[in-house]
Amino acid sequence: MEKIIDIIESIAHEKDLNIEDVKNTVCMALTKTAKKIYGEDYEYETIINTETKTLNLFQKVLVVKDDDERLEDEKDKYTGLTEAKEEDPGVEVGDELTYELPLDNLGRTAASTLQRELEFHIQRLLENQIFDKYKNMVGDSIFGTVTRVDNEETTFVEFDEVRAVMPRKNRIKGEIFKVGDVVKAVIRKVFIDKAQGIYVEISRTSPKFLEALLALEVPEIKDELITINSSARIPGERAKIALTSLHPNIDAVGATVGTKGIRINAVSGELHGENIDCIEYSSIPEIFISRALSPAIISNVKVVDGKAIVTLPADQKSKAIGKSGINIRLTSMLVGMDIELVELEGGSDSSTEPSKDPNALSNLFGGE
To answer: 10: how many CB neighbours lie within 10 A of its CB?
Structure first.
């Protein structure tokens, strides 16, 4: 085990690993090897001597009273106080003594075991490093190449050092991929599977994918001059996104849509023509809900126990609901509450009657 530090530095450099992590892994591998060779019941400690650059293995024994019964059956784990004081006069019952085990005497079996242990733990270290990297990338967009599509239409996409998985449910309806296609998606979740190792699931149907695409297309969002407050999608059909400008001279909706719709159309094209409604966010729930239900014209909004009661003219109800209920479903997802629509009946209910002040509704819904 001469110059073990040089070997550790070489492994760390080759595998792009932290040197201290590799040191700990080497020590763990030797300790586990000792347990397999000498016995699982004994306690061992591995120390790297930085001055001599060597690896030292020690067996630890517990100091007990001379008449302790354990001395007869497990003498390799325990030592009597009298014998222990010959090694260290200051030792007391309950202390631990360490004895170095010569590594040269381990033999070929131990060397082979150590190699397997080291390979196993270095591989685990690599997997944990990759796992931590991609765990922190959940919600980020990625580009990858399709390497396989199985019989269940699960798409396997290779990017960087991993192969990601896109189940059929995470694919926009009507999309078909073939080997060699370049796919853009967002990382949905990452976990370690005992059989497959690191599992990275990607998605093109997540609202986060829409947000990631907008960040790529709209510099103001990427530069955090515009904030995305929330988003909702029915993939491939329609989406709503709530935006706030953090700069007085930037119109959040206008900047996101772009000149003649060039920015939002580019994002829509990536999503197979998904219609995207950009909405100016408001911290006042009633105003936010009324904006989100566009193109319907709303008369009144009340929030009761986390539920929105929306009053509107009869001829606006179909617009609020939308085709197959898509508009009200998206609005509910965007604002995070259930919505109940109530048709306006002139004069029958003062609580839902439009204000007689012509400026009242414009003041309520036009600004904060």
So the answer is: 11
Residue with tokens 């001829």: 315
pLDDT at site 230: 96
Please state the φ and ψ torsions of residue 138, each to the nearest 5 degrees.
-60, 125
pLDDT tens digits, one per residue of 51-106: 777 788 887 888 888 877 777 776 667 777 787 787 778 888 878 777 777 766 66
CB 232 within 8 A of CB 330: yes
- In the chain, DSSP assigns E strands to 43-49, 54-64, 78-80, 96-101, 141-149, 155-159, 162-166, 182-193, 197-203, 226-234, 238-245, 275-280, 300-304, 307-312, 338-343
Q: Look at strands 43-49 and 238-245 and give their pairing.
A: unpaired
Please give the CATH superfamily to which domain 4-130 belongs. Answer: NusA, N-terminal domain (3.30.1480.10)
Q: Range(s) for CATH 3.30.300.20 in the chain?
A: 206-281, 295-368
Cβ proximity of 199 and 190 under 8 Å: yes
Report CA Rg, the chain.
Answer: 33
Q: What's the maximum distance between 2 C-alpha atoms anywhere in the chain?
A: 103
The kind and range of the H/E element at 216 are: helix 207-217
CATH number 2.40.50.140 given to 145-203 = yes
One-letter amino acid for residue 130 of the chain: I
Question: Environment class of residue 73 by beta-carbon count within 10 Å: exposed (0-12), middle (13-18) or buried (19+)?
Answer: exposed
Q: Full-prediction pTM beyond 0.90?
A: no
For residues 230 and 334, is the Cβ–Cβ distance under 8 A?
yes
Parallel, antiparallel or unpaired: strands 155-159 and 43-49: unpaired
Q: Which CATH architecture has domain 206-281?
A: 2-Layer Sandwich (3.30)
Enter the tokens of residue 225.
């001059």
